[in-house]
Every structure is written in C-alpha cells, then in structure tokens.
Amino acid sequence: MTCKYLNLIAARLPRVFIVAGTALSLVFGGLGCERKAKNQNAAPGERIYRIAFASFGPDIAADKAIDGYLEGLKSEGFKEGRNLEVIRKHAAGDISMLPQMMQSLDADGLDLIVPMTTPGVAAACAKLRDTPSVFVYTYDPISAGAGKDFEHHLPKMTGVASFPSIDKTMKVLRELVPGVKTVGTVYNASEANSIRAVAEARKILEASGIKLEEATISTTADITLATQSLLARNPQAIWLTGDNTVLQAIDGVLGPAGRAKIPVVLNDPEFVDRGAVAAVGIGWTESGRAAGRMAARVLRGENPALMPIVNIAEPVVLINRKQAALLGIAIPSSLETSPAAPGTGK
User: What is the pTM of this model?
Assistant: First the structure.
C-alpha cells in the first residue's frame, strides 16, 4: 500500500477518526515511506537491496565491524542511501532473544542477513530458512553450527571468522605480570566462543604452571557477584576474552579489578581505555570489509554454498600506559613499541 494511497484514506476519514487514520498511515505506510526517503538518490529503475545487521547488543567493537562491512559493500557498488537499505537490530545483550530476532528478520523479505557474534550465528543456524547470510564479528562459527568446517557449511550461510591469538594474549599477560601464578576470568558458559577461548587459555597456562580461576555467568546481572567471587580467590591478573555478555557490562569487572589493583588484559582493544592494562585482539574493521565484499557477491546472485568461510584476524596489541602506571606495572621492552590506547598516554 503506497504512502499516497494511505494519506488519501486518512484525508477522507471523518474528523473523529483523524488521529486513528494518521496512526494507521504511520504504522502501515511508515516503513515504505522511510525506505523511499532513504533511497531517493537511487538511479531510475535501480534495485534497492535490503540487508539487516543482527547483533548481540550495543557494542563499539561491533560498530567497527559494521562500518567495515558497509565500506566493503560500497567498494563493490552497494551504497547506503542509494541502492542499499540497512536495518540494524540487536538483542539488547540477552542471548535468549537472539533466536526470536533471527526468525523475525527471516520473515521480513530481506536480501541478506548479517549475523554477528558466535551466539548470533548459532541462532541464525537454527532459525534462518529463506534468507542468505554472510556473518562477521564472530569468533567460532563452526562451534555455532555453521558447518563441519570452513569448506563444508550450511548452504545459505558463509562469512568471516575472526578468532584472536590466545597464545599471544597469554604471552603479553605473562610479560606484564612476571611470575604470575593465578589468572582469573569471567565468562558466559553458554557462549561457544568463550568456551573455546577459555579451553585454549587453560591449556596454555597450565603448561606454564599457571592456574586459571574461572567464574561463570548467565546474564549481565551476574557479573558483579562473579567478579567478587573471582577476586576472593586472589588472582594476580584477570583476562577477559570476547565474551559478549561480559562486554555488555564490562565495567562490572574493570571497576572492581582496578580498585583491587589487579591488572586486566582483554581480547577487545575497543575497551582497553576503560581500565584494562592491555588488549590483544582483532582489527574488526578489516574483517568487516572482507565480509562486506563477500556479501556483495551474494547480493549479485552468487551461491553462498560455494563460498568458503574465511578466517581474518588482523592482530592488534594496545597498551594502556596510564592504567599500567596506576598499578605500578613497568612496560617491558618487548611491548614498548606497542601503540598506546587512545587517550591513555604516549
């Protein structure tokens, strides 16, 4: 139903129904009107492609991946506001809402859905039936159910995986905290990405005679108690992997750890200036660009079943020199050339 037709209906309604008629126009015509306004720069006859980013929750790192994704699409001729309509949805940090969100998007007649995070990909695997998807901002799509391996995956799904180097992370942590014997971590045991990262960290640390103390959560509401429980076990350092639930309320870990003078090392550089000492992570913008270029191929009609999943994890190491100084941590010579976190020192 067109905006013009809906407005005509509203104009002919009796005065008593004017408010209701206007609401009707907004509810049923708003989406179409907005789409027309957003794409007023499209060339005559040019098709408008509709895609949706489906993320775990508000997240500055995810925003970088989205920005890169749109850059990748633009480089291939798909530009937001011209021939591309972009919808952004998230589950407000509630993992239980992801399946419902994916199912709703699948019914919306989109050209492409972009699942983000490993739990998001798991929900997409379970609920997407009609819409192709090219994921990004995802540690471990295979654990999420995307396929047997990168070559053999679900026929309508492909994308970019980006798993950080846990070995390098632990190396940086040991250099910053010489002689460390106990490392603590907080994570959601329902996130396959975190389970894999913690398993790798546990193996690496045990080989060096270091104990990994684990505190698990189910929701962001659990973070404060889990952090208190962890600090009661006297770790000399805390490591946080890219756990999506923790990232939604990361200050609940960084605040108490800072007050306890316990250094924190992250796998998410975007959060290091919030009170961590260092981050060993991924350049999400580049992962996004690569996924965006893959998405362009799918929008042109290429079969995602024939496009292997790829792994892109551009390494990033940032040091928060201000936080290190507050905790009395000397930056070792091996890390002196690492960039400082924005706004945390030279």
Answer: 0.82
